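All the exercises in this workshop are built on plain-text protein records. There is nothing in a record beyond a sequence line and a structure line. A learned vocabulary of local backbone shapes supplies the integers on the structure line. The question running through the whole workshop is how a given chain folds. Here is such a record, shown just as it appears in the course material:

***
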Amino acid sequence: MLALAALALVLVGPWLLPPLPVQPEDIDLDDFPSSQDSKIDIERLLFSVLSAESLRSSLEYYTSGTHIGGSNQSQATHTLDYFKQQNIDAEIVEYYPWLNRPLKQRVAIVNSTTHEIAFEASLKEDVVPGDPASDSQNDIGSFHGYSANGSVSGRLVYANYGRASDFDALQRANVNVNGSIVIVRYGKVHSGLKVYAAELAGAKGVLIYSDPADDGYTKGKVYPAGPWRPESSIQRDSVLRQNIYPGDPLTPGYPATRDAQPIEPNEASSLSTIPSLPLSYRDALPLLNAMQTHGSLAADIDSNWVGGLTSRGIEYWTGPSEYEVQVENIVEYKTAPIRNVIGRIKGSEDPGQAIVIGNHRDSWSSGAADPSSGAAVLLELARAFGELQRLGWRPRRTIVLASWDAAEYGLVGSTEWVEENVDWLRASVAAYVNVGAAVDGGTFAATASPIFKSLLYAVTKRVLYPHSNDTLYAVWRRQSSAEVAKPKPVIDLFGAGGDSLPFAMHAGISTVSLGFTGSSGTRHSNFDSFKRMITFIDPDMRLHLTAAQVWGLLAIRLADDPVLQLCPRCYAKAIKKYIHLFEQKMQQHSIQASTGNKLHRLRTAQRQLETNAAAVEHDKRHLRSVYGEDCQMTGRRRHATCLALRRSINDRLSNLERHFIDPNGVPGRKWYKHALVGPGKWDWTEADHQPFPALAAALETGNKQQFQQCEKDIANIIHEAAWFLREV
């Protein structure tokens, strides 16, 4: 009877699945053929295996304590053992990067005449009764990964978000930054760029605080009354200049193995050279108050320089302050082991081809949303894949599951692994699917290579949005159109989604990053806790379950579809948009392309790519109509012809991204190899990349000859990719 019930689950849509999954141990395996050509709908069976209760249990485990990169070996061992329990071959892969740990941190306002202390920051977060994560014995306090060691003092200057443009504005306002301590808000650009911009402006140290205008009480109720950032919340971060290169700063471009030969720290261009610390807005209040009536009124520079502390009596001024501010950041740097956990499910028909799915495990705190929600989903997929194997399923292609370490420091675990395995990745891997923070709100978001557009839409149409009768696709479309008036959901520019970056930007692997966002008010603080998650974000774990369904379906489609359902024409059309965006950017500069303000070389190459992409789609239709994608026929010659055509199509689809890799890299940032997208030099965030980074660099130099040569080089890369699509 139970076997019949399980079979019924396979034959109905996911909208009819019961609230609690069928327990696979109760299913008679004789009811399920083990061959690859089984008519079982594995995707729907996956839905019956995934469990909200199991997700909750894993999330509770991963949030049981602080686990910064290179620490808490027990979680790595737990993940390894869990993979093995699911009949997944697994191992711990260690690397030995250079990491820092906090020893002593201090921020104080000092009367430079009397030397009396006017204020000293607590640099501590409040304990919330009933939330053990806020009272963690492993609390690391106020700390920036890869921050410079030292004690400095100077007058205080406010520089808004700390962008290069903000420091330009201070210069125009005749505010002297040289020798100062700069205080800036989190947001808009990566923290490493804030510190670098301050360094170039002559600052001696940087304080980065979370302003309530960005994620605090102006957004809604703060924790523990709501999900947003409370006044004592400290947002830890890395200040590594990841726009130069991510990963271990002492082994750029090669893995930090035990016997690697590191460069000297003063040779590492990704490291900051001035101290920095994060602050709560409670600690920032007296500092901002110390600049009242000093310098220029921030609102006179621009209205967006005014934050949310006006309700607390703060009138934002630039300074410099009258009193000095002392910043002490004593850290210890040393080479320390980090531990990636890598699992493999060997493919049944094409084991030499693989897909990789991954999430990072480390966190600055208990990290319920970032990253433990994703870590819990990864563990749940491992359990589900193990149960499906027990029922006789094997993926067509190999599936690699990766649990990264030290991502918060600067994508260290994933970057070192990619650097060590780059040749295998380029030869064998069709896709990387990443989930960092799987759940921190109810808004679905995805960044992806354009080649995934059709598949992402198809998968999200198969999944219901929690507590509704709408598909995730329909809700995603409405959520997107609320921000941008478009008929289809918005997929953001790819490659910037956390651990996707080294795969896409260095190895040329097509990537997807996805998750639910919308309430990221406690990022990197002790308040990103299990208690907050189950109270305000996902009480019944249905968002986690939906994330598991989407991630699992994507993985199964990529691993099991006889013909990869990737869309090269979508890529070609996206490049057309990239060109249009860049031409708009050119209008702000005096430099022009060889034929005026239009990138005609790129446009010609794009049209060729789109034409040849259509040829691949034609080959797919021909395969489907003449042979069938499964190549199930008795004639030996006909069977061989079908297999050869199918292999050719899949090779072209999975390797297209590789052909956009420029071995020379972006000028000044050689680690970044992708010719079409990459981080901006000054305007990069972890969720944003720009088109044609090398061309953008040439545009900024104002060198017309360099710009035109760069356009020609990128056009040649696109032309070569186009001709690759015609190879059969």
